[in-house]
Amino acid sequence: MQKDPKVLAAINLHAILRTMEDLCELDSTAAGLIQGAKTAIRFVIPGINPMVLDFRNGQCKALEDANASANMSLRFTGPEHFNRMVDGQANPIPTRGFSHIGFLKNTFTQLAERLTAYLKPDPSKLAADPDFKRSSTLLTAYAAFFALAQVAELDPLGQVNASRIADGNILIQLEDVGLTLKVRDHHISVEKGSCERPDATMHFSSIDVANGILSGTLDSYACIGNGSLAISGTVPMIDDLNKLLAQVSGYLS
Fold it and tell me: Could you tell me whether strands 72-75 and 38-45 are parallel, antiparallel, or unpaired per DSSP bridges?
């Protein structure tokens, strides 16, 4: 699959790095690393909406508000530059907040390494540690569905697939964790938490099922057939959503 650098950069920023917010909620070590932090980093990439990661007192908040305050700014010459940084092959260009360079090089790097360990997990650890498997699956789900919104917005085929989804709310339910996908005028936004009266629902019966489907080791249609992946409501919305998810897996692989 040919990966569009701009789409990949948007996914890396608004889906992968955004997931640091969830990492610091689920992982006590990550929360401990930023317990005394007061650093907000703005990522600026030409052609892509900026994002601020605000690390404060053991929590991380991903802010897509263009007016969100930050005490450090990192600029990139383009999507390719940002993608290379994510791959560890390039450095950002700090334009503000040089006193926070130590946080960037040390704490932020440690958080990125922990996030990678969850998103690209060691299979033996998944099998041996149920708590790690649950956190890994939840973080992967957050990354995948936030990435879906970027594919729907920026990828040409993604735009076509998104245009087929009727306006409404799609609830993704994984045990007691919910994600709401809001479809409005062919644009998709994602919110953490469940919604009332969704137009369509995708419900994973267990962490094992969600992990298998998101990692590609289980077939979603087979899981629908045996009831381990339940869909309800306006089913065509789920069908078109699955086409976007297939594109997401290509970008995340």
Answer: parallel
**Strands 38-45, 200-204: pairing kind:** unpaired
With beta carbons less than 8 A apart as the criterion, state whether 154 and 129 touch.
Answer: no
Q: What is the pTM of this model?
A: 0.94
**pLDDT given at position 156:** 95
Identify the residue whose tokens are 């085929």.
Answer: 157
Rounded CA-CA distance 130/135 in Å is: 9
**According to the model, what pLDDT value does residue 99 have?**
94
CA 91/CA 81 separation, integer angstroms: 8
Q: How far apart are the first and last CA of the chain?
A: 10
User: What CA–CA distance (Å, rounded) separates 214 from 217?
Assistant: 8
- In single-letter form, the type of residue at position 224 comes to I
Helices (H) and strands (E) in the chain, counts: 12, 10
Question: What is residue 203's three-state secondary structure?
Answer: strand
How far apart CA 250 and CA 253 sit, in angstroms, is 5
* Residue 105 DSSP code: I
